[in-house]
Amino acid sequence: MPASHPKSLSIVIPMYKEAENAQLMVERIHQGLADYNAPWEVICVDDGSPDGTLKALQNAQKTFGQHVRIIELQRNFGQTAAMQAGIDAARGNLIATLDGDLQNDPNDIPRMVDELIERDLDLLQGWRKNRQDAAIKRKLPSRIANKLIARITGVKLHDYGCSLKIYRANVLKQVRLFGEMHRFIPVWVAGVTAPHRIGETVVTHHARQFGESKYGISRTFRVIIDLLSVFFFLRYKARPGHFFGSIGLFTGALGGLLMTWLLAVKFIFGEDIGHRPMLSVAILMLVMALQFITTGVVAEMLTRIFFQNNKGKNFVVRNICEPEEGQSWQNY
Ligand code: UDP
Ligand code: MG
What we know:
The chain is α/β, with parallel strands linked by helices. It contains 11 helices and 8 strands. The chain has 2 domains: 9-219 and 316-321, Spore Coat Polysaccharide Biosynthesis Protein SpsA, Chain A (Alpha-Beta Complex), CATH 3.90.550; 238-309.
């Protein structure tokens, strides 16, 4: 039953290998939300952790009870999918997301909710102005990515990657997340709301104390691919065919010219074109690249359609563990 209170809030936390953080996280949420004057729930999604995260969450639920809901995924589906699982289960009019590693500070949430309502936003993005992560490995790539995304998409934010965000649920639920798309949520949200309804606010950020970051250089590559996809969808979503059609025509013309030249070399100048194998290789590679790009875009379009029409589930839930008495939510 969705609560009718305009400030009813669902806090979604994806967790993978956060056994050491889980209980403390739930405790901090309760401290941060102690004076929250509307119904709220925290939805912890265990993303197939092998390290006892689920057990820790169940203990936390025993201790804190009624506000805590646990979604157990069948295996590790990744942060984006875990977030989507939590969002699907959210009953609040507002949804907050944050990381389960205590790097975001739950104390920021009530203030952010007030700010979102005050500024009449659909999304309030946290901005880790004092980010406590490795400079070269994490902060620098993020900086470049943020600049790129802002430029490409026209959604001007400083820190897309900050998980701490507050949304209006009805708007967020119009977006389906997949891949590593949690990094670009504001961009997708911008697709369903006006730019002036997306804002940002500076938030606290702590260094990771327990456990370790799941992201290394290998994920950076996937992010680049996702960034490309974001780019193509924003630029060419109406007529992607036109763009690739033009490339096709251009390459075709080029190929035609090359072929004419080769034929001329053979029949007019009487030389043997078998002496230019590199040429064939070059053409072959060009054509192959084109094929790959085109196929990639088509696949990307299909993926998008698949997930966007709400049926494509990129995760499987094993179990939902509700608190014994769901009282506080209904009877507030
Ligand atoms: N996470 C997840 N599934 C994964 C990887 C990460 O649910 O496959 C969660 C993780 O537990 C954390 C959040 O996503 O709550 C962000 O992950 P992490 O702290 O490793 O990323 P970083 O802060 O280093 O970007
Ligand atoms: Mg983290």
